[in-house]
Every structure is written in structure tokens, then in C-alpha cells.
Design goal:
Helix content is about 45%, strand content about 20%. The chain is of the alpha/beta class. It folds into two domains: about 150 residues, Rossmann fold (3-Layer(aba) Sandwich); about 130 residues, Rossmann fold, CATH 3.40.50.2300. The strands form two sheets. The protein has a six-stranded parallel beta sheet, with helices on both faces. The chain has a six-stranded mixed beta sheet with strand order 7-6-8-9-10-12, with helices on both faces. Strand 1, helix 3 and strand 2 form a beta-alpha-beta unit. The longest helix has 18 residues. It is elongated, with a radius of gyration of 23 Å.
């Protein structure tokens, strides 16, 4: 019997392996539930994950846009769970509201990568971000030094429910606390150009003047410059530090209309690399930290923008 079957053994093995290969050929589905695509940075994150997935023949990609609405984000994650995606990436706008549905995904056997903005729970596969307190400290130390320890500084904050906002502000204010002759004003721009434009218009129209601005995103700082231009205030006359280091920010730094930006990597490629390791059953760190750096005119030609 064994002599009869032995010539057929390679064919039998091929038939046994073929269904698995076909299943893998269909690809593991990675779903990215994103807070909003109206924010330039958040849209670029989705694009980077999509493009990195496209380079991997075993992966497929699907995403959603919650349009800044927490209820819609939760609904979209629930839908991905029902569809039994193979891995879920979450970019949230609320550190606490998303916790129960992330728990539900994990209970359903779906690995979860939390990208950029953290959550209050700890039931996820891995968390990929940068040191947001450090971002605030880098901006604060640079501004304080340039001001010589005295003046009025405007802090433009992002979403109040996002941990990145709280951490960036915390790092920045820790530095400012060392300089009693620096006055800090705070406004909220929700990481959106239009919201920052509206708030800056109110300040300038009320006659409020500042010596420096730390904007927790370059998008908000772009809105600020629009207002300054409209009122005949040269943006280059102020010390302005943004965050993200976009192509728009790079051009503004080159032209002297923005002082600097803290480069905040998108994390998309790191996310896809982590996803592959998870799906292949490899051991992965619970927390992956991507380095940040302050880019000013001295280094603007050497550092590539995030998008």
C-alpha cells in the first residue's frame, strides 16, 4: 500500500496545503476606525496605513470615518466586530467612551492596536504613540528661551477629551510654571484649522496681543496665520511652534512665517508592521514609542515632513 501511495504523496500534500494558501491569499483584513478625516493629520494616518497595507500581499484594508462623532465611532467599531475583521486599529476622540467597545473586540478574539491617542482602559493588544508630554516640553523650553523668560504666550489646545491634548498641555505648562514672568492664555481649536481661526479672530478683534504661540497641531497654526494676515500682523513677528511637521508647516518655516514644529510621526507604517507580527502570532511589545523632534529653520531642509 505504501509503495502505491508514495508517488501520490507530493500531490496529496499540495491538496492539503492549497486551502490554507487560498485563505491567506484572500488576506487578513485590517480595519481602521478613525475619529475624523476632516483633520489633515488623521486623514494622513489612514492613508499611510492603507498604503503600507497595499505593499503586503497577505493584508487587506478597510477604514471608517466617524466625522468627529463619538457615537458614530462606537457604531463603526461595533460593525467591524460583527464583520469579524482580523485586526482593528482605533484612533479615538474620547479616551474613556471607547473602552467598552474595545473590550468587546478583544473578547471576540480581534486584536486591537490603539494608535496615537490613548484610552483609559488597558485591554488592548498594543499601543503605538509618541511622547506627548515631551512634545509640550520641547515647545515650552524653546519658547521660554526665545522670550528670555518673560512675555505672553498663547497655548492652542486640541480636543479636550483626547489624552494627547492633556499630555501636551501638561508638558508645556510644566515648563511655563518655571517662568513667573510668562503669562499663558489658553484657547481650544480641536485640532481643526477653522476652529482655531474662529478663536484667534475673537482674540485679535478684542485687542489681545501675544508674543508667542504653541499650537498643538500645525493645522490650527495655519488658521492662526490666516487671522494674523487679515489683521496686518506679520506671522513672523511672533514665535510660533506647531506640532506634526506637515509639508505646509515646512514651507511656512522656510519662508519665516512659522518658527518651528515638533515632528510627530503618523505611525501608520509602524502600525502595519505591528499588525503583521500580531497576525503571525509573534510576541509584541505592549507599548511602542515613536521618537519626536523639534524642527526649526536650521534643520528644515534635513528633516522630511510627515505628509
Amino acid at each position: 500500500m505504501s509503495r502505491v501511495l508514495s508517488p501520490l504523496l507530493p500531490l496529496l500534500l499540495l491538496l492539503c496545503v492549497a486551502p490554507l494558501a487560498a485563505q491567506e491569499g484572500e488576506g487578513w483584513r485590517i480595519a481602521f476606525a478613525q475619529d475624523t478625516l476632516a483633520n489633515d493629520f488623521r486623514r494622513a494616518q489612514v492613508d499611510e496605513v492603507r498604503d503600507a497595507v497595499a505593499e503586503q500581499p497577505l493584508l487587506r484594508f478597510v477604514s471608517s470615518d466617524a466625522k468627529g462623532r463619538t457615537s458614530l465611532l462606537l457604531h463603526q467599531i461595533e460593525q467591524f466586530i460583527r464583520e469579524q475583521v482580523d485586526l482593528l486599529v482605533v484612533g479615538t476622540n474620547d479616551a474613556s467612551a471607547v473602552v467598552p467597545v474595545v473590550d468587546k473586540a478583544m473578547a471576540a478574539g480581534i486584536p486591537v492596536i490603539i494608535l496615537d491617542r490613548g484610552i483609559e482602559g488597558d485591554h488592548y493588544t498594543t499601543f503605538i504613540n509618541s511622547d506627548n508630554r515631551l512634545i509640550g516640553r520641547l515647545a515650552g523650553e524653546y519658547i521660554a528661551e526665545r522670550l528670555g523668560g518673560r512675555g505672553r504666550v498663547l497655548l492652542f489646545e486640541g480636543l479636550q477629551t483626547a489624552d494627547v491634548t492633556q499630555l501636551r498641555s501638561e508638558g508645556f505648562l510644566q515648563v511655563m510654571a518655571r517662568y513667573p514672568e510668562i503669562e499663558v492664555l489658553k484657547r481650544t481649536g480641536n485640532y481643526l484649522r477653522k476652529d482655531a481661526l474662529i478663536e484667534m479672530e475673537k482674540l485679535v478683534s478684542a485687542g489681545v496681543r501675544v508674543d508667542a504661540i504653541f499650537s498643538e497641531s500645525d493645522s490650527m497654526l495655519s488658521g492662526v496665520r490666516m487671522v494674523l494676515d487679515r489683521h496686518g500682523i506679520a506671522p513672523g513677528s511672533l514665535i510660533t511652534i506647531g506640532c506634526d511637521y506637515t509639508s505646509e508647516a515646512r514651507e511656512a518655516i522656510r519662508s519665516g512665517r512659522q518658527t518651528g514644529s515638533v515632528k510627530f510621526p503618523l505611525g501608520g507604517r509602524e502600525t502595519v508592521a505591528a499588525a503583521l507580527r500580531i497576525l503571525r502570532g509573534e510576541t509584541l511589545e505592549r507599548h511602542i514609542v515613536i521618537p519626536v523632534e523639534l524642527v526649526t529653520r536650521e534643520r528644515v531642509e534635513q528633516v522630511e515632513p510627515v505628509f
